[in-house]
Amino acid sequence: MLKGRLGLESARVPHADRHGLIWLDRGELCVIDGCLHFVAGKDSLAPHVLQVPHQAISMILLGPGSSVTHDALRLLARHGTLMAAVGHDGVRMYTAPPLLPDRSDIARRQAELWGSPRRRISVARRMYALRLGEVLPHRDLDTLRGIEGSRVKTIYRLMAKKYDIEWKGRHYDREHPDAADIPNQAINHAATAVQAAAAIAVQSLAAIPQLGFIHEDSGQAFVLDVADLFRDTITLQIAFTAAKKAINGDDMTIDRLVRREASTVFRKQEVIPMMIDKIKLVLQTKDTDGVGSDRDA
């Protein structure tokens, strides 16, 4: 029997003292002799067995071709180690069982900021400042959205010019997403990939996905907030790079081209760790980006 309240004993190593994420794919996460292992090539003549230091990491990301045993889930829950099923290099976020961290400080801080209208707009202004590179004086969310939308249109044109791609404007039909031209399809797919990375970052910190500061109605509102912080620098870079390859005659579909490019960018630029840092920054008590503190928000 497992000890502790609700049948679970508290984790021996606090999340604050652990390392970050570990990526595993094409194998089985299982328990061997009481320890967590990842077995790759299980049915081959030379399987590779990796012992996973589950008490020293915050989250395990299982990529394509992976499976997990019941004993492994039990061990992860026992030690408070998170796990998520993701696409290759985090280009998709499929599910994250509720194996949550042993601290609630980030979630409580997020709820505290979100629950106060003046603090909520202060966080929104901080997020816009991170994106736009300047502190806007406006405190009305619709006004901020309008300014951001206008600047994004300019960025689209500049990115298209940089990659020598004809740009006819941003168009997206939810009912017929494949009807858009190649650049617009690439942006749609890239946005989905970056949102998956943002979902991983939010889950890894046990932040609350529903409590967004700019987005409001979506059940993934805060995930969308975080993803938008990287629209100009990551999403459009991925989209226009993949679009250029497609226009130049690459045989792969635009979806696959975007996934591959996103995988490379996520890995080389350490996008998910950057997102984790940004979440901590926007939810902090004191500002470092020039936006006034909660008291004068």
What's the number of helices?
Answer: 9
What is the CA-based Rg, rounded?
Answer: 21 Å
Question: What's the CATH superfamily of the largest domain, by name?
Answer: CRISPR-associated endonuclease Cas1, C-terminal domain
Number of strands: 8
Query: If you consult CATH, what is the topology of the largest domain?
Result: Four Helix Bundle (Hemerythrin (Met), subunit A)
Top CATH class of the largest domain: Mainly Alpha
Helix content estimate: 40-55%
- Tally of domains: 2
**CA distance, first residue to last residue:** 51 Å
Quote the beta fraction.
5-15%
Average predicted local confidence, pLDDT: 85
Low confidence ranges: 1-10, 285-297
Structural class: alpha/beta
Main sheet specs: 4 strands, mixed
Form type: flat
What is the spatial order of strands in the main beta sheet? 1-5-7-8
CATH arch. level architecture of the largest domain: Up-down Bundle
| Helix-strand pattern | EEEEEEHEEHHHHHHHH
